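Reopening: Bacterioferritin-associated ferredoxin still failing for me.
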Amino acid sequence: MIVCLCNAISDRDIRRSLTDGTVASVADVYAKAGCAPRCGRCVPMVRGMVHEHCGRPQQRRTPEMA
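Support: Ran it again with your exact input. Result attached.
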């Protein structure tokens, strides 16, 4: 599935980057792909994948955080 339409990054690309051990953040995912987020709609999904892989709980946005 394509996660980032602007840069054509798939969930497989992200998972592959995460499993090689050199990626530990959203910024690392984009750096590894040789790009940067453009519209930003994919960032929450990428962040979730990174947190899931690294065993970190996802922070839920609350109205106070918005």
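The first strand starts at residue 2 and ends at 4. If you still see a failure, please send the error message rather than a screenshot.
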